[in-house]
Amino acid sequence: MSNSDCRDGILFVISAPSGAGKTSLCRELIDSFSDLRQSISFATRAKRGGEQDGVDYHFVSTDAFQKMIDQQQLVEWAEVHGNMYGTSLATLTVAAEGGTDLLLDIDCQGAAQLKKNYQQAVFIFILPPDYIELEKRLRGRGTDDEAVILRRMKNAEKEIPAARWYDYLVVNDDFESARQQLIAIVTAERCRSLRTANLLDKFTAKGDK
Ligand code: 5GP
């Protein structure tokens, strides 16, 4: 029996300010663990080039999203950069029933909502080395105009100081070190005794077998 045979699935929740490298680091984590799945959120924003419905997001209209809120189908939701994003209860239920570990790439508002009801989830915040480097990276992407960059920097100044309650802070200064730290967090969390207590069962009743 291994750790993963005897424990419930774990929710790994990752947040970061825009430009900290979260998307690439999440992709690396998914590639590093064959038994870690990305949670697919519902989103009202337009599909970007190369994105697929049901793979990157479940793309829905604002009306459909509002209906999901009204019917309490979402465990968390938030408005981010003018669009609505949320995680469905169904996604978490299917993962829990299958004992699957899920990676949730969600913003701080959504993470704070999850923290209230999912105390066993693991909350990880990715930090840039500093604000100067963050701005350099946002500008370096060449995808956003000046107003968008300034808005993202303003958001970062609000999000970063509020990240104190997360379980782990990972600084993405050197990408490879950040990747290794995230792998270490997932590996360690999977071994925590509070999740794997069943492993001890066969050792406690000495002489029973
Ligand atoms: P993007 O539109 O660039 O894919 O994502 C924008 C932001 O929305 C990112 O910070 C991402 O973490 C956040 N986001 C994506 N899915 C969810 C979700 O289900 N809930 C919340 N609260 N935020 C999400």
| Rg over alpha carbons | 19 Å
Strand numbers in spatial order across the main sheet = 2-7-1-8-9
Low-confidence stretches: none
Q: Could you please say which CATH topology of the domain at 3-39 and 99-198 applies here?
A: Rossmann fold
**Mean pLDDT figure:** 93
Q: Shape, please?
A: globular
Would you give an account of this structure?
- The chain is of the alpha/beta class.
- It has a domain at 3-39 and 99-198: Rossmann fold (3-Layer(aba) Sandwich), CATH 3.40.50.
- It is 43% helix and 19% strand.
- The protein has nine helices and nine strands.
- It has helices at 22-32, 62-70, 89-98, 108-117, 131-141, 146-159, 175-191, 193-196, 201-204; strands at residues 11-15, 36-38, 42-43, 58-59, 74-80, 83-88, 101-105, 122-127, 168-171.
- The strands form two sheets. Strands 2-7-1-8-9 form a five-stranded parallel sheet, sandwiched between helices. A four-stranded mixed sheet has the order 4-3-6-5.
- β5 and β6 form a beta hairpin.
- α1 packs across α7 (175-191) and α5 packs antiparallel against α6 (146-159).
- The protein is globular, with a radius of gyration of 19 Å.
- The chain starts with 10 loop residues before the first strand and ends in a 5-residue tail after the last helix.
- The model has no long low-confidence stretch (mean pLDDT 93).
- Bound molecules: guanosine-5'-monophosphate (5GP).
- Residues 41, 45, 76, 78, 80-81, 85-87, 105-107, 109-110 line the site of guanosine-5'-monophosphate.
